[in-house]
Design brief:
With about 450 residues, the protein is α/β, with parallel strands linked by helices. The protein contains 16 helices and 13 strands. It has an eight-stranded parallel beta barrel, surrounded by five helices. It has a two-stranded antiparallel sheet with strand order 5-6. β1, α1 and β2 form a beta-alpha-beta unit. It holds the Pfam family Bac_luciferase.
């Protein structure tokens, strides 16, 4: 059996939301800005044949809750967040195959800057970069880019689609064959193969071309995340990798089938997109012990911190709601504020149709989300490997898992690589080496099919 499982490690929140004080975190290392821990983590991840390490990002300190940064600063929620580009460059120097995912916001950023930045990192890493493009619903981010209000949900995706058209156009503006380096004639490049972009759209005007050499991957893989109907249309049009959370194998299959239908609508095949399901391994001696550990971690998070976290993620200040409220009231309020309703299905499950929610229930959900970060796999290393194998078998080809590393850094990385990965390899579902692939795109098996911006 040829191994088909793909594994990435989500290292976005290893130092925030109280994780910095958990037992086993940052032992023998300075705090997260020091390069030593990231170099060691990269070595461990590559030893485990991990496909990619992933860094989410944000550029503001959360201030949605009560209109202030005070609570977020007090509890260390979603901050500090440094630009991980220099860290990725360091990690790439101690590895040969490990890929790297870095996050940018097409809602606020400019595609020329992102195209140049990511292409530069693709050169430095030897073709191992992926770019995660997230339509942003966080007010603190918006304010730092000069936006007074959040952009309406579907408009964010319209801007993202145009952003990606420009991004891909810039990456194609210098053909690989353009560079001649003819020492005899002194000709450096062929101007017939270096092209203006001349893009004039609703959101961007970009002349081009990109003023740099084509990167090893030419087009680093594009990651998109989310699950809204408008998001699915964008994913089918643009993405190479989709990162989306579903609570069960049935939900994963349903999403994959819906995505494949959208792919067919735009003439793409299912194998052109990998789906990475987020999972959070909570490892213990057994399932019961793992759940006890999780309960202890949740209880260690202040209740207010849960509210701050959820307000930031949704872009809506839940502190303004009354003591009790219905899902319908919350939905209407969030949509009126152009916030994200992604967490409302979980809230609806707590009370059922027509049920009442309280602020305390909302804050508790925030605490649980901070600790888990995705569907949780409980138990020993064997238990966790069993669950990964079952989910992989039930959700079909062209899928993998984004393993959330939250609570114990770097212990969780070491435990997963040294205890879970060998079991997956022994069962033949995960590779024992990187093979002949030299780029992240090749390693993931994602074909590069260049399409015009209008397709």
């Amino acid at each position: 059996m040829t191994p088909t499982l793909k594994l990435a490690l989500d290292l976005s929140f290893t130092h925030t939301e109280g994780a910095w004080r958990n037992p086993g975190s940052w032992v023998n290392y300075p705090y997260y800005t020091h390069p030593a821990i990231w170099e060691d983590v990269a070595r461990v991840a590559e030893r485990g044949c991990i496909d990619m390490v992933f860094f989410g990002d944000g550029v503001g300190i959360p201030d949605t809750w009560e209109g202030s940064i005070d609570a977020a600063v007090t509890w260390g929620l979603q901050w500090p967040r440094h630009d991980m580009s220099p860290t990725i460059a360091l990690m790439s120097r101690v590895t040969r195959h490990l890929g790297f995912g870095l996050t940018f916001s097409p809602t606020y950023m400019h595609p020329y800057y992102v195209a140049r930045h990511v292409s530069s990192l693709d050169h430095v890493t030897g073709g191992r970069m992926a770019v995660n493009l997230v339509t942003s619903a966080r007010r603190s981010d918006a304010a730092n880019f000069g936006f007074d209000e959040l952009m309406e949900h579907d408009r964010r995706y319209e801007r993202a689609d145009e952003f990606i058209d420009v991004l891909k156009g810039l990456w194609s503006s210098v053909e690989p064959e353009a560079i001649l380096l003819d020492t005899g004639t002194g000709v450096f490049a062929d101007p017939a193969k270096v092209h203006y972009l001349d893009h004039h759209g609703e959101f961007f005007d970009v002349k081009g071309p990109l003023n740099m050499l084509p990167s090893p991957q030419h087009h680093p893989p594009l990651i998109q995340a989310g699950a809204s109907p408008r998001g699915l249309i964008s994913f089918a049009r643009n993405a190479d990798i989709v990162f989306v959370s579903r609570p069960s194998a049935a939900g994963m299959r349903t999403f994959r089938a819906e995505l494949d239908r959208h792919l067919a609508d735009v003439g793409r095949a299912p194998e052109e997109i990998q789906v990475l399901w987020p999972v959070h391994p909570m490892m213990g001696e057994n399932v019961e012990h793992a759940k006890e550990l999780e309960a202890q971690l949740i209880e260690s998070v202040p209740l207010e911190a849960g509210g701050v976290f959820m307000a930031h993620k949704s872009g809506f200040d839940f502190s303004t709601l009354p003591g009790t409220f219905t899902i319908e009231e919350a939905t209407a309020a969030i949509e009126a504020a152009n916030g994200s309703t992604a967490y409302l299905p979980k809230m609806a499950e707590m009370v059922g149709p027509g049920g009442l929610l309280t602020k305390q229930m909302f804050q508790q959900l925030g605490r649980e989300t901070m600790i888990a970060g995705g569907p949780t796999l409980y138990g020993s290393a064997t238990d966790i490997a069993d669950q990964i194998c079952d989910l992989h078998a039930e959700t079909g080809p062209n899928v993998g898992f984004m393993v959330s590393i939250i609570n114990f850094m770097p212990r969780n990385v070491v435990d997963f690589v040294e205890k879970v990965v060998p079991i997956l390899q022994q069962r033949g579902v995960f590779k024992t080496g990187y093979g002949s692939a030299t780029t992240l795109r090749d390693n993931l098996g994602i074909p590069l099919k260049l399409r015009s911006a209008s397709s």
